[in-house]
């Protein structure tokens, strides 16, 4: 009798659940601008209509219709009810739209199936290459291959001497594989072939070659002005230069477009929408931060996009703040800024701004002060871990150069509680450590701060502060060795940290010293004895008063980007390739500001020094709303 009662109860729950889903779906509609099916690579615009809901937040999720798990979030917390979705992998997808009434907290859900077909006729047994919306990016369609093998596409311009390959994809029975091919010069013919890979990525089978000719680029970039140097051959293991530009150069008609070039300065990839690129990511994607399309507030929409600029996943500051409120945090964030990092366990780490009004903390009276918060989320932007600088650093220690932001000032995060705000922390880079914690470059404190993350299990307390007036004793050298107003701090080995030293403190005052130039530095630290030694110190030849990036190259050399030289009227940037011995092997001057620049093997992988082996994780699931 009890068994039948349980079955009846489960049936009743299912009936009530479907009734609830149907009743909520009656009030919400999800309409595609194109009928299903559509070929791979087609952008589908979905419009979500929440009847009677005037204060709505929209979420769009997508995933395979068959198989375990829920669809992954593509857009979260959007105020825009019209959202674009693109897939190049064929299959039947379950599209789920969720509407949140921001006033009542009520959710309404509607879903539909959408079929993405191969971009070539289903009876095609050979490979094809198709153009895309970007003249430097092609869509390569390969015939099905047997699992568990993987496949990639190899491509080269005959006579160029440089062979590239896309990231690999797993073979699926009966499903053609689709690849975005990027890293090609304009108006150039490339020879492409797909290759089936073995368990150790060895080539098992290769196809016949197909020729594809790229089109003409639709943007202009700064000319590279190389400077002859007296050293030997520079690094060629990373033949691409990935650049995130700032502001542009109106005098020369140059816009701030994300792009990549070869070492000779020839354009090989770009996005034609100006946006703030944070850093490249895996598999032909990158992280960007852009203004909210509805409110226009800047740096409120962090997104991962593909090589055509199409959204892979995206959230908003408003969506993250709703989670912080549910978790019981009193502070809210104003923006996402400066850095987004993919952690080894698949989670995502963001830097955000937290503004407070404080009294008699930074001088007499009540003032607005800007601090920073680290948020770590899962792939669906569910917050897993929070670190608030207000709880772990001393707010009575003001910015070392007294930086104050006024409304509209360039380089300042948004603030709302006063007409000006003390820019107390201004953190600008975040990195994972070999022991599973995080380091934060806190520019306006002149510190690199290590916090206990412990792969999500840490309490966030400050383990140490590296820099002047920090926790490490200096071994050898003088106090002038210490960095200031740094960028892009990262571990490059178990005990060595690479950093771009802007040197603002050394260059402060009306009469800067003769050696007022930014530096590339490597610090060797001993966390047992709490000592630090400067083991590499490269004079970069110019003083970059803001921005900059640093990278360890595969051959042991370094790549430095002095991204803000000159003036806003005449912007300049310098790239330097420096050998392990400190000899400058390549110097490139450009007529634009560059936020960051990295040398890459291809557009599908990140610098190896960013890929720290994964450690144990401790996920915690919470409602996104």
Commentary on this structure:
Pfam families: Arylsulfotrans. It comes from Allochromatium tepidum. This is Arylsulfotransferase N-terminal domain-containing protein. With 625 residues, the chain is mainly beta. It has 3 domains: 113 residues, Sandwich (Immunoglobulin-like); 86 residues, Immunoglobulins (Immunoglobulin-like); 386 residues, TolB, C-terminal domain (Neuraminidase, 6 Propeller). Helix content is 6%, strand content 44%. The protein contains 3 helices and 45 strands. Strands 11, 12, 13, 15, 16 and 17 form a 6-stranded antiparallel β-sheet that branches. The longest helix is centred in the N-terminal third of the chain and has 25 residues. The protein is globular and about 70 Å long.
């Amino acid at each position: 009798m009890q068994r039948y009662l349980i079955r009846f109860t489960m049936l009743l729950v299912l009936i009530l659940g479907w009734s609830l889903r149907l009743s909520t779906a009656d009030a919400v509609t999800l309409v595609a601008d194109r009928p299903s099916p559509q070929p791979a690579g087609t952008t589908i615009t979905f419009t979500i209509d929440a009847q009677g809901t005037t204060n709505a937040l929209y979420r769009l999720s997508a995933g395979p219709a068959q198989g375990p798990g829920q669809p992954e979030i593509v857009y979260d917390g959007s105020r825009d009810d019209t959202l674009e979705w693109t897939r190049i992998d064929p299959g039947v997808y379950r599209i789920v739209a969720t509407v949140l009434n921001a006033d009542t907290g009520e959710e309404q859900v509607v879903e539909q199936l959408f079929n993405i077909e191969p971009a070539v006729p289903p009876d095609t047994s050979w490979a094809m290459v198709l153009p895309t919306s970007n003249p430097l990016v092609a869509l390569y369609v390969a015939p099905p291959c047997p699992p568990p093998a993987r496949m990639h596409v190899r491509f080269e311009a005959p006579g160029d001497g440089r062979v590239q390959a896309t990231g690999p994809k797993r073979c699926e029975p009966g499903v053609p594989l689709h690849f975005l091919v990027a890293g090609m010069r304009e108006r150039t013919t490339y020879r492409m072939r797909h290759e089936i890979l073995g368990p150790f990525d060895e080539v098992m089978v290769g196809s016949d070659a197909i020729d594809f000719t790229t089109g003409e680029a639709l943007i202009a970039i700064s000319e590279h002005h190389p400077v002859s140097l007296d050293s030997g051959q520079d690094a060629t293991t990373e033949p691409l230069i990935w650049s995130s530009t700032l502001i542009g150069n109106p005098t020369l008609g140059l816009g701030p477009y994300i792009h990549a070039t070869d070492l000779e300065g020839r354009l090989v990839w770009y996005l034609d929408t100006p946006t703030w690129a944070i850093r490249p990511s895996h598999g032909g994607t990158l992280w960007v931060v852009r203004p909210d399309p509805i409110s226009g507030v800047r740096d409120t929409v962090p997104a991962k996009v593909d090589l055509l600029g199409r959204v892979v996943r995206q959230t908003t500051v408003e969506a993250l703040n709703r989670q912080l409120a549910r978790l019981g945090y009193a502070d809210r964030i104003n923006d996402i800024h400066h850095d987004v990092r993919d952690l080894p366990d698949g989670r995502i780490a963001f830097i955000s701004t937290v503004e407070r009004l404080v009294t008699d903390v930074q001088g007499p009276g009540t003032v607005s002060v800007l601090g920073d918060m680290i948020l770590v989320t899962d792939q669906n932007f569910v917050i897993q871990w929070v670190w608030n600088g207000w709880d772990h650093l001393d707010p009575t220690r003001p910015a070392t150069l007294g930086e104050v932001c006024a409304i509209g000032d360039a380089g300042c995060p948004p603030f709302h509680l006063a007409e000006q705000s003390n820019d107390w922390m201004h953190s600008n880079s975040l990195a994972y450590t070999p022991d599973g914690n995080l380091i934060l470059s806190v520019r306006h404190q002149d510190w690199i701060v290590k916090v206990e993350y412990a792969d999500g299990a840490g309490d966030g307390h400050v383990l140490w502060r590296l820099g002047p007036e920090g926790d490490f004793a200096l071994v050898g050298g003088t106090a002038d060795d210490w960095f200031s107003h740094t960028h892009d701090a990262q571990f490059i080995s178990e005990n060595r940290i690479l950093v771009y030293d802007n040197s603002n403190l050394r260059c402060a005052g009306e009469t800067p010293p003769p050696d007022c130039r930014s530096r590339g530095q490597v610090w060797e630290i001993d966390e047992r004895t709490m000592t630090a030694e400067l083991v590499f110190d490269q004079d970069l030849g110019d003083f970059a008063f803001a921005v900059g990036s640093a990278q360890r190259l595969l051959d042991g050399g370094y790549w430095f980007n002095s991204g803000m030289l000159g003036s806003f009227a005449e912007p300049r940037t310098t790239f330097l390739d420096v050998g392990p011995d400190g000899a400058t092997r390549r110097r490139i001057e450009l007529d634009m500001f560059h936020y960051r620049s990295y040398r890459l093997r291809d557009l599908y992988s990140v610098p190896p020094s960013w890929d720290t082996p994964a450690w144990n994780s401790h996920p915690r699931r919470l409602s996104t709303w």
